[in-house]
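Reviewer 2 asked us to include a model.

Predict the structure of this chain.
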Amino acid sequence: MTSFTASLLNKAIVWESAVGWTPECLDEGPGMLPRYKAAGFSFLSMTMGADWDRPEPTLRHLAQQRRWFDARSHQFRVVETVDDIRAAKSEGKLGIGFHLQGASPLGYDPVLIESWYRLGIRWMILAYNTRNPLGDGCHEPSDAGLSMLGRAFVAEANRVGMMVDISHAGIKTSLDIISASERPVVASHSSVRALKNHERNLTDEQIRALAARGGVMGINSIGAFLTDDNSASVGALMRHIDYVAQLVGPQHVGLGLDVVFYQPFMTKLYDSGPLMGQRGYPRPPWADVKPESLPELVEALDRHGYDEASILGILGENFLRVASQNWRSASSNPTRSEK
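Predicted model (structure tokens):
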């Protein structure tokens, strides 16, 4: 590691948008946390539930995980605000946040958004890969867009302060979300379709629309989304980061590495039906860029001519900006008239 990299990581808030933390991921999960911390990450957002999960089991899982992290407060800080993330960094702790990949844990009922926000959920994907009552996922051939219920979800998320995430959504659904939202939205862990033609990746139209409204795109490091041979490397990840930065500016790029440390679960999911194979996914194990590659990525950004402010933005400040434009204090009680 160069002295420049060490100095920059010492001051950076490094934000990772997608860490699998549903019950299926927990055999391997706790062993990954020291690796993220040692590599220089400051904040991890953990997936508490997905579109295949129901409300009561997800609520129980979130409560159990909050208790697990709180019991280790010498190592972790569960964050509610942007200031909490910065405080965790200054305390030498790993900041922990929570999100949902799909609206099923809410029973597709927007009235529950505020309660989940108060419990610590800070952003939410509305539609995960396939169709649900809110809209079409990225693998639905109809690409029908956001439903009336989906629009109600966006409006309520804006009121409450919960970020909306367009990863896994269909093209029209994501564009509808961006247009409907009064606050910037994110693509927490997506890559570039112009570089790898996969339905999970974002088109230039989506990227431009996201950036035009102030949003940020976290680049996914899974090889299936990076390269034609499904390999993963810092160089391949850098191609996608640089593409977005050149297209819309480095202030709209972040990290959503989505490291697949739970390969047995993904293999079981892949083998449970034909959908993943039909939609362009290789059979696991999947290649990805591990947390330990963070210093190498910083050095690649430096070699590509990114200045310090841009690198700090890509590592975390860009996501922090969007979070500050969405999140409210956990103790606040927004009224229906708030915007």
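The beta strands are 15-20, 43-50, 76-78, 94-101, 121-125, 163-165, 186-190, 216-219, 253-255. The CA atoms of residues 110 and 153 lie 5 Å apart. We have added this to the supplementary material.
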